[in-house]
Fold these 3 entries.
Entry 1:
Amino acid sequence: MEKGQGDFFLNRIVRRIFHLSSEQSPQKELVSFRSPNFNLRVFQAFTILRYLTLLLTSLAFLLGPYPLFLPTLKLALVVVLFGLAALSVRAYALYQRKHQAVKVLALVETLFITGLVIYTGGLASPFVWYMLVPLVLSSMHLPYPYTWAFVILFLSGSLMGDLYRQGSGFPLHSAALSHLDLLLLFPLLTLIIQVFARIYYTLAEQSHQLELQQEELVGAYIDLSKNHQLMQTLSDFQRNAVTCKNEADIYTRLAAAVSFAFPLEWAAVLDLSEPLFPERTQAFGDYKLVGDGKVSKKYLESRVAQELRDRWQEFFSGRGILLGEEQDWLAAPIRLEKKKTISLLVVQAKDLNSRNQIKETLAFFISFTEQVIQGLRSLRQTEESLQHLSNIYEAVETVSRRSDPREILDLFCSYARSLTGSEKIVFWVEGVESAAGSSEGSESIYSVKGQLSVFPEEYWQEPLLRAWAEIKDNPVSLVQVIEDEEGTKIGQMVCVPVKSWARCFGLMAALHGEKSYSVDETLQKLTLLAKMAAIAIERNLTEIFTDKLLLLEEQKRIANEIHDSISQNLFSIVYGLESVSKHSQGLDSRLKRQVTSIQEVASRTAKELRVLIYRLSPRKRGDETFVKEIRNYLDGLSNINDIQIDFQVEGSEEYLNPAMRSAFYRIIKEATGNSIRHGHCSTLQVKLEMTPFTANLNITDNGNGFDVDALYAQNRFNGGLGILNMQELTQSLQGSFEIQSTPGEETRVICHVPTSPVSPGKVVSS
């Protein structure tokens, strides 16, 4: 019989005899309270003890004087005993971890040995010492009460057998006294074996715990070493990545770091030409391969890239790590904001354990790569923005001093398209000329930058007018949809108002197609440019107003000079000719006609000159350009900020020279703007008194107020920059400037400027 068949047959016999079938009585694994599992060396020693004990007792039985047994019978019995011993060893080997099975096997063996001892001579039989086998077995593998139960069963059974053999006349105490040495020796041996077993299992348990601790320490050291190497690699990658000047260098260092940190065959980064995002309908197309040099683009296309194109949507579900169908590579996306995937890290691992380790730790490398790339792009964008802003500032300094606002529109349109990356920029301004005090009607002007074939005017004009109708009444940013002739959406138009504190000049619009873009980012950039454009337009209009004041002053000077010199001389000529005409009786008739003709021409010229003087002199024609401009500004400020402004004027603006008018205009703009921005006022009162000797300006608001002394003490500029400008403007006119305010109460700005005599002064630009 082969070994496998013998084991199967023995297994079935033992299950049938001891009812150990798992279907009927599930057995739990043998776990001693002294030992966590069975020791192989103990089992081997137990087997040697069994055969050695059986051999010695069998020799003693064969050589001993046992007349009841023939030599042939003795030999047969010994052979049977060795066969049963082998069967027992095999049974213990099969069920050594089954607690109930060991108990049953030990009990059966105890009963068998007890019967064998009774059959072969009782306690005088040499097979008494074969009882040491189940005794050692139960002591080593069963709780102590079972061992004592087996000893008592064996000794009592052996004594009963001796009494049965001696007959009824043989007393029990005599039988016990005759075998007193064995009756005392077996309990003593049992006690010694149990003590030895306790000591052995205690030492074995301690040794096992030490081995476990050693294994844990070794495992922890290995893990710590791997983690240290991984962290060192990650740290080196972080230190090197932040010094990179472009994304390709970052990807190269990432592939090299990942290849060094993990057992990989190769690592590469697919730098996508167009980013992927969840709403995209197509897979990625072309890409740039950046790697460690161990993989080619041809190999990647044949093994990896096509599968990535087929399964790219899986990057936006779950953990985002994609495992190849043959499970020999995995890919992880490198994303920026809003799940926009800009590149893919692809690695090929050598075994499954490596892939599982990579899944757990690859996120650290990916996360830092995303941070570095985001920081690099932000830095690059900031540098570009600062460069654009620097160029815009230089251009605004030049353009804002010119008389044509269209140059400002063209300038900001160009920079807005460059800064936002929009397909087209439209800058719409309405009524700029009227803001400068022109008598002409309101005029709308606009500038467009972008290709003519992209978003033609018929597509965006109507949405732009709708946006301007909304922004004019409520100057806030909005987004309009652009449609073609068939009503299909072809893009969006992001609109921001171009407004100052006093009025809304127009709007700036960025047109985008279906290509993905950030509305918030576009709004942020457009808003900044719109604010700068409003400042430039406001400054341009201020310069135009100042030039107009100078022109009016020059007209006034010319009118006065004509009135004081030419007009008086012409009047003297007319008066002289009239005197000559009265005394012309003695003159020749021809000469008399010439004198009369000259007198008529002189009179007609005097009248025309008087009309010209009235046209040139604002005082003569009753034109108050300065007061009108201030009133227009305050009306716009009231409307756009929803506040009440009371403007009171006393006297004539003829008492103010151009420097005074320009200074008062700037002071009014600065003071009213501060009241709205910082004071959060709801009403304003502006009172301007102009006399031949002094000009007084009082601006009062009902805002929050502030501590004037604290402001002057804390600010090294002796107040805010706006306050400093107002002070310098007043001082340039030899006047006085004062601010009266208390926290929680009204604020009052007071300016006193002498009107005569006064130097022309110098207006400080804001």
Note: Residues 1-38, 434-441, 758-766 have pLDDT under 50 and may be disordered.
Entry 2:
Amino acid sequence: MKKLTFYPIPIFLWVFIFSNSLAQKTAFTASDAIKVRNLNSQILSDDGKYLTGLILDGSARFGTDHFRFQDPSYLNVSPSELVIIDTENGSELRPYSGKAKVTSLSWAPNNIEIAFLEEKDTKLHLMVYDIARKKLREVSVSGNPLLANSEITWMPDSKSLLIHTREATWMARAMAVYNEATKGPIVVYDGSKPFLNWDEIRNTNNLTEVHQVNLANGKALKILGESNYNGIEVTSDGQKLIFNQSFPLKTAYEQNKGTEFQTSFLNINAPDSAKVIYSRNEKRREFSWSESKSQYAWVDSGHVYVQKLDGDSALNLTKGKAYSDEEKKKEVKFSIMSWSPQEGKLLLSSEKGYWLADAAGNQLEMIYELPEKKEKAPDLGLLNWSSDERSLYFSYSSKEKWERGFTRFDLETKKMENILLNSNLYTDIKTSKDGSKYVLSVSDGDMPANLMSTDASFSAMKVLTDLNPWMSTKKLTRSELISYRDTDGKELKGVLYYPVDYEPGKTYPLVCEIYETFYSNGYNRNMNLIANQGYFALRPSVDLEIGYPGEAWVKGITSAINKLVDEGKVDNEKVGVQGVSYGGYATSLLITQTDRFAAAINISGKVNIISFLGDSPKIGTRNYAAAENGQDRIGGSLWDDPLKYLATTAVLYADRIKTPHLILTGEGDWNVPGGNSRELYFAMRRLGKEVVWVNYLNGGHGAGGASNETDFYDQWKRIFDFYDKQFTKEKDKTEPSASTN
């Protein structure tokens, strides 16, 4: 076993700092961006000894056939490196010599076996890897059922597991529905049918059965018949199976309508013994289960209820025990955070703070009061309890500066103690079952994260991976958190990325990448590519208001630019703006309101919110919901608030655009079809504006960035060339001529 050395700063950060001063670095290119590796789908064994995950690079999405979205016969599992890491010494096990198409990783309770699904020959196969024996084997499931790409649930004895399969006639039924909508030759959309065509496809694709598979001989026993299951649990004694079901009724345009939900359990040895816990209802009920799954809790009208799995009655833990207004007897509304390890207590939260409730209903106490000014208070995220139930551990993130880390709350002294706080970024935090070990991804905020392990003291971290050592030879950006006020006087934050080879006192071009709110940093591919062009890059935040979202972009983004211009960092004549999806939509809308920008790029973003309501049939009613009560923030229907839809449709104001515009789309984009973005190209060309539209015929959502390697390079070259052209040309006082593209 190799000797471990502990460092106050992780070793990979020292390497980065040291190499900064010695190495002659080269530019970070689009080719480099593809090479960057990340560890995804991380799961930790219960004892915390091993972590497994999938290492992917930027090529993982290449080759996706976007035109086969929701095709029942299409498995789109990305190739990756399956790795098992010893959290004590960082040694690795590799079940495969190279990449494999692997999904649905699941640790056995015995902590020495991992089950997963592998795509081979257009089908999924059940695989098990034994760490002790270093042996990979396929489990030949009796009856050769078609496996579904879904979760794997181990039984407590580690001798069998539960998998989702397809009923024998499912593929024929599912393909018939899919082909009817995609191949025709005649496709009928009938408003009297309960479901939209693509909702019916989705509903059929969600149907599975649940089988228990004996790993010794592959024998499969059907436990649950065909239905739409969304979450199954097994009690710690292995006797009972808890399962949630969804029952779609119709395509609905209102939130929380059109589907009923039900929760039940059964004795595994008697599958016909199912008992309903929560009867079919359009109101989804989220249950919080104790570790043994013998008790469950839920919230109804702000009150917390607890019931034993075999119990006939529920106990209200909060009614009449806490009031936010004593005179009016206004009771506190609670939500559930966690069960205690020994299952005798529950941690609850309210607007005022954290509470501890006795699961027997004997006591309710507020243990920690949240600050009154919540908008300034740090974000706390519960990680786990200590095994002795003395302490609670939280992740911590300040809202005022990049100060992040971990805190501990002592339940006896009622004191919150900072354990580790610094500017590093901590993500993908996993804990062992007893709370004694933590495994997490750590970054300095600019480099890609690496895996580390520690105990609950966080006094020393062991470096477990170095996924991208070659990046120490590359020119990379550095990030900075900035504050500014929009034109309404509201303070906002943004993340500024410096040009490589930055020289203080010199002004640089700036490219803004916009979406909604940005605060945290972390390695960012786009920002590094832009910074290597010699530009500042900025991810500014905006304060989006329901009913008037369009105004936020010009109010917030221009204020952020003004700050950087006033500081002497940015050349006011060389500012660009770009965005993807909702950010692309914001980009096109923004340049109808201001001529502040020298260049603008919309990648896979809509330009007509009215036609967009029906532009994406494959995602059902999502676009209506997004406009009426979701991300688009219109706040009402087209027929209730038509003027607001008109105000946020960029193509209607194409005559006001003075900014050269590049529009990038993917022909296979089922999320934001390229035809919507195309509307602005035709409008601007008709009006004699400077515009180029590039449609990647193999691309999806993200245009050339969601296509193949050739298109990926092409898209970035076009982006760089476009900014270079607009930033270096003489400012034209006249209206630009029509594009010939």
Note: Residues 709-728 form the longest helix (20 residues).
Entry 3:
Amino acid sequence: MNYCVIGTAGHIDHGKTSLVKALTGIDTDRLPEEKKRGLTIDLGFAHMDLEAEGGKIRAAIIDVPGHERFIRNMLAGTTSIDFVLFVVAADDGIMPQTREHLDIVRLLGIKKGIFAITKSDLATVERIAEVRAEVEALLKDTILEGSPIIPVSAVTGKGVEGLKGLIGRNIGRVERGSLKGFFRLPIDRSFTVKGFGTVVTGTVASGSVIKGAEVICFPSGEKVKVRGMQSLYADVEEAFAGQRAALNIAGVNHKDIKRGFMLASPELLELSGSKGLSMDCSFEFVKGISIKSGQLLKVHHLTDESLATIRLSGGGEAGEKTCGRLKMKKPLLALRGDRFILRDPALNSTIGGGVVELPYFSKELMSRLDLTLVRNYGLDGLLRIILDQRAGIGAWHLCLMLNIKREGLEGVLKDSGFYLSGGYVLNLKKTDEIKGMAIAVIKGFHSSRPLEAGIKEDELLKALRGGLSACAGDRIGIFREIIAGLTSSGHLKREGSVLRLSSYTPEAKGGDTKIEEAIKDLFSKGFTPPLPEEVKSLPFSKKDIERVFLFLQRGGFIVKLKEGSFISSEALKLAKERLTAHIKEKGGIKAAEFRDILGCGRKLAIEILEYFDKEKITLRAGDVRALR
């Protein structure tokens, strides 16, 4: 069984609710005030089974209010429909809300629909023909031009069965959002059911969810569990994009959830904060409307809404298609491809709509994009807009921007010149440039400071900051991925936080050679190493002595026993050999015995023994040491 969602549209009192009842037997006016006034105030819900060319279709019907005062409620229902059942009363004909509802339907990209001329029992054949002509003229040059038009009467039933069959024949195969996308269920109702707890309803906007899954509640970010699900009153194990669903959830009270909230994949948790405040979009404005950058508008997205400031990249003249940026007053969980409606809060009228082209999660990234390039690009084009001028971006950020899951990212990147490395998507051309810069910086470092083992990682990062400046908040991570590539390829060697060229060996040059020879001469006396004061008294600058001394220590010629006590590695090697031979013969050694073996002072003998203890060569038990 296939599913679809049909939405009503049309002016107040043109018979939308009566027609739905005639089609389904369900009265969608559920509120006492609606029954009392005979006026639809909020969304109503019904369903019916249709015979379609591809088999049976179970259609959910969302009945929307027609009064301009309840346009917010109307929009909450219309943004999720596949097919519109548009009503125009035979007596009134085209009215103001007819036009506004048609603008909304058109701007939301709803491509299929049927126009029912209601109250046909109250009109002559000539009047019905006149209204038909008005509807055809209204639809001219719109996506719904050529849609079927049928006269019906909810009172007499005339044309109702014909309308039902016509819907089945015209609804065709419904285009679905990706079932592999991120799950989102915009909530249009929240209530409690005795014995079950909190239940929310809505039309799944993208992805799918299974019974038992853990999801988040947007905007709070609170985690909830899906205890059970129904679709059109039938229990289901999974709800998917385009399907009406009622979810029984645990972990939140129904009073804390309202229309405009959303259940979503846990992966979207980070968008519950300020990252959902800005997005680049393509816009279309209603004919006769003039828009200026900086204007405050109301954005209606799925069942939610937010005030936003619009920034246009073009002139934004009436009826013009252009693109630009929306800066929201509160976060909207909008992803690439989502449609929305723009209304002027001052005029209380629909002035346009648009499509989310790129939602942004980085101020640095936002400031570098040319809005005029965003519109109508495929994934390949968007990848180039985002990455052509930068070394890389976090893979997860890119997934959110492009509205694709991580597992689908590799396919998108294939043959693109961009590649996955760790948690990042890197630009091969740019990273090769930065690798070249890194090698040049390190080579220069070796040349100017030949005694040092290499450059510190943070110092190299600082030197490469210009090339990495376009990496936004991912700069450090991308830098580390580039360096990891250089080390794995054998170009660089890493020792802790120090990096050097693989081919480089530190050595003393020029005047440093004399300092090196002088220090080595002091340490050539075996078990009578020099005191720190003797090293410092050499006839060279203190700074140069310290630098060469550190070089000899790093190179392994000098070994630090403890603070202020050093010995040559050769002397230490000889001490270890004598120690090992004695212990193997005698079974252990005391400090005095070790002193006598080395022919040194007691202080140095103890310092060497303690060094061997620390290096886990010996193990002390009282006054005696044994080999570990």
Note: DSSP finds 20 helices and 31 strands in the chain.
